[in-house]
Amino acid sequence: MWRTIFNLILVLLVGAAAAFVAAPWFAFRALKADARDGDVQGLAELVDYNAVRGTLKSQLGPTPNATTAPAPTIWTDPIGAMKRALEPLTPPPPAVERYVSAQGLHDLTRGYEPGKAPAEPPQPEGLSDQVLTAAQEPWPSLRYWGPNRSRFVVRGPDKPERETVFTFQRRGWFEWKLVQIRLPDDDEAQP
């Protein structure tokens, strides 16, 4: 009887470890499915929009109104820091918003630039056909896995050298959020 209990505990531990290791991959697949279906609530649970917008802003170049001087601090310019704190927040540039929209995220997870992806074929009816279709679509490759961060690379179907890197960060035992998108070099030049 003790051997059976030990084996059961061992199987549960191995299962929990496998789920912990595979959780980022499931988060990527959920991101792709939620973006495909336009599930805004699901995307809100999977994407840290502030962090992703910040990384995209730096890659897409400065906005026309951006200043190159560093923001004033309370120690160097207290009045300037207070003015900056009281100013209304400016919305992100439209170039960034097309990347973080549901359609833009779906295009990026398929390896295309936002707005330039071909229409996705309709989902097949039967379960076996759905499994075959899912197995034939391009899979992301794992570039890095760590206990708190993981990176996936999606290559463009038409240009394999075009790599988009998705970085996920662990926020709970099995909860991962998208915190960074590294665009290919050809996307960075276009605002």
Quick structural gist:
By secondary structure, the protein is of the alpha+beta class.
Protein traits:
about 190 residues, four-stranded antiparallel β-sheet, 4 strands, alpha+beta
Please tell me about this protein's structure:
InterPro entries: DUF2939 (IPR021330). It comes from Phenylobacterium glaciei. The model has no long low-confidence stretch (mean pLDDT 83). This protein is globular. The protein is of the alpha+beta class and 191 residues long. It is built from eight helices and four strands; from the N terminus they run αααααααββββα. A four-stranded antiparallel β-sheet has the order 1-2-3-4. It has one domain. Helix 1 (2-37) crosses helix 6 (102-110). The termini are far apart.
SSE order: HHHHHHHEEEEH
Count of all domains? 1
Distance between the termini: 66 Å
The largest sheet is:
4 strands, antiparallel
Q: Based on DSSP secondary structure assignment, what is the total number of beta strands?
A: 4
Helix content: 40-55%
**Low confidence ranges:** none
**Count of discrete alpha- or pi-helical segments spanning 4 or more residues:** 8
β-strand percent reads 5-15%
Rg calculated over all Cα atoms: 21 Å
**What's the average pLDDT?**
83
Strands of the largest sheet, in order across it?
Answer: 1-2-3-4
* Structural category: alpha+beta
Overall geometry: globular
Protein name: DUF2939 domain-containing protein
InterPro entries: DUF2939
Pfam family, one: DUF2939
